[in-house]
Amino acid sequence: MPFKKLHPHLQEKLEIQEITTPTAFQKKSIPLIKSGANVYCMAPKDSGKTTSLILTTIQKLKCEAVGDAPRAVVLVENKAKALELYDAFLKFTKHTTLRVYVGYEELHIDVQKSEIFMGTDILISTPKSMNKLFLLNGVHISHLKIFSIDDAEFLTQQSAYKAMMSIAQSMKKCQYVIYSEKMHPKLKRFESYFMEYPKTVTLK
Question: Which of 47, 84, 153, 162 has its CA 20 to 30 A from that of 126?
Fold first, then answer.
């Protein structure tokens, strides 16, 4: 059972939210992501992909703050998705020292730089905003452990795809996990760039 092997804090939060049984997708994906592999996670809507993302990210960081630089990055399509995911993370990071920060294009880049500099563990961002942070040296990624992309279909759009490719070129080695409903040729193409030896979880 994937939940039984998670940090006790996460088990407690799942219990509070009355999530007692992993979905079929979570049974397949959580152990694989915990192993440290690069993973493509393909499953329909409401399969538990976002909860898997949150649990494995927090598990990777051992439920505690370390240093000032982000150790986990989550890429999302837009501001609305970023804020929604931020709220979802807070349900699990409450009563831990973990710091979650959310950035998006509408928030001035200098504000983002200064606030991230004050210390963050999990950075939620959009492709354009993240790319701009990298180009301006606004975020240090030397301690990055895991880079996840939620509902990654948006990366099939040319501007988002280009931003992601630029981000990947700035990155040092870390674990990548891509969540989407189905595999798209553009997502598959990432294998040639940063998704080294990926595993695939598919739930139809």
Answer: 47
